[in-house]
Amino acid sequence: MQWTEVSVTTTNEAVEAVSNILMDAGASGTKIDDAADFAALQPEFPGELLDKRDLPHLTHGAVVTAYYPETIELSTIIPVIKQRINELDDFGLDAGPATVLQKPVAEADWANVWKKYYHPVRVTRYLTVVPSWEHYQPVDENEKTLTLDPGMAFGTGTHPTTALMLQALELTIRGGETVLDVGTGSGVLSIAAKQLGAGEVFAYDVDQIAVDSAKSNLDLNPVAKDVHVSANDLLKGITQTADIIVANILADIIVPLIPQTWPLLPKGGLFLTSGIIADKYPLVVGKLREAGYQIVETLRRGDWYGIIAKKPEVDD
């Protein structure tokens, strides 16, 4: 089968949004070349020497590449992709150059093209993201691995927004908690929650492609085999209560989610959010406080914010 490679030159902050746009347009897989990921690249094994100068890489920004089969009519799809990327500015995301290019590619090439760029990355103190084809030995007994296949990439764990939520889960999970993962994407946060000791985990995403991607990644991690994952529009209609709700999505989507979380959390329950660009942070904090939440901690990486909010243990 003939495939077409569509690449979008963008910014670090917009890679996950652009990837979602490309997948929504019918891509069979994406890869992300991000200067920030390269900067975080570490040797695979203790004592191994890694000369980054020998590896091809971006010096700034990012390129998101998607692959479309010949059955998809790209002449009608490309204008829609360009329009949706240009609209990211309305959500407070700078998509950068947003240059969209396309070229034909052989199936054998796209199936393995990202493997030379994607390596194990220690994202937090205890959590390391490992691609499914790599053999990786944890360097200490406290390290937990999250195995992912980026073939259907909705967040590989290394983007600042995802890393912030991994850090927040690491700070808050004590063991046995029920967790709701809203906008699960790759399933990385659900896997992390289970690795950190959570009890039941329920994962939701509005996109069936993301649900299927999450299921595939959950299957790669035995600890997460009992995660419940299904398609749903945020938390509409959900009655399952939880000790922790986590959402790594855009600020403009977090705002309508806030009132949906309140009745599902007990007093003392936690709502962890990320995907909040700097100029949207005051909006989200204001809406959280308006709903009754206390801001326990704010996390930051570059221009991105994560928030740990708490439902008060006593009524005001």
From TrEMBL:
Q: Name one GO cellular component term.
A: cytoplasm
Q: What is this protein called?
A: Ribosomal protein L11 methyltransferase
One Gene Ontology BP term is: methylation
Q: Which InterPro entries match?
A: Ribosomal_L11_MeTrfase_PrmA, Ribosomal_PrmA_MeTrfase, SAM-dependent_MTases_sf
Can you tell me which residues bind S-adenosyl-L-methionine?
Answer: T162, G183, D205, N248
State the reactions this protein catalyses. L-lysyl-[protein] + 3 S-adenosyl-L-methionine = N(6),N(6),N(6)-trimethyl-L-lysyl-[protein] + 3 S-adenosyl-L-homocysteine + 3 H(+)
State the protein's purpose. Answer: Methylates ribosomal protein L11.
Q: Describe the family membership recorded for this protein in Swiss-Prot or TrEMBL.
A: Belongs to the methyltransferase superfamily. PrmA family.
Q: Specify the superkingdom.
A: Bacteria
User: Which CDD domains does the record associate with it?
Assistant: AdoMet_MTases
| Compartment(s) where it occurs, according to its Swiss-Prot or TrEMBL record | Cytoplasm
Q: Which keywords accompany this UniProt record?
A: Cytoplasm, Methyltransferase, Ribonucleoprotein, Ribosomal protein, S-adenosyl-L-methionine, Transferase
Main localization of the protein? cytoplasm
What Pfam families does this protein's entry cite?
PrmA
Please list the GO terms describing molecular function.
protein-lysine N-methyltransferase activity
Give the E.C. number(s). Answer: 2.1.1.-
